[in-house]
Amino acid sequence: MVSGLKIALVVIVVLCGVVVGLLAERTARNCGCSEPVALSWGGGSFIAVSGLGMAILNMLAP
User: Fold this and answer.
1) Which of 15, 30, 41, 62 is least buried, going by the fewest C-beta atoms within 10 A?
2) Sequence-ordered list of residues with C-beta below 8 angstroms from that of 22, at least 6 positions apart, any chain
3) Side-chain half-sphere exposure of 61, counting CA atoms within 13 A
4) Torsion-angle region of residue 32: left (phi > 0), alpha (psi -120 to 50) or beta?
5) pLDDT for residue 48 is more than 70
6) Which ranges of the chain does DSSP label H, i.e. alpha helix?
């Protein structure tokens, strides 16, 4: 059974990934990158932060 605390931590990790992805996309656009490049930076950052957070959560509380 999944506890409420673990669900809350997963939601927080995903929201952190969204924020970092949006910041990376905005930074890439401000630096003059084209839209596809900026979107790939944003998406890659989201995947990296969320994936790392999920891996840490799984190590701490399997």
Assistant:
1) 62
2) 42
3) 13
4) left
5) yes
6) 4-30, 35-60
Q: Which amino acid is residue 18, in one-letter code?
A: V
The one-letter amino acid code at 6 reads K
**10 half-sphere exposure, CB direction, 13 A CA radius:** 9
Kindly report the pTM of this predicted structure: 0.81
Structure tokens at 4: 């409420």
Q: What pLDDT is attached to residue 1?
A: 52
Rounded CA-CA distance 32/16 in Å is 25
Residue 49 tokens, joined = 């932060």
Structure tokens at 45: 């950052």
Q: Which two tokens stand for residue 2?
A: 């999944």
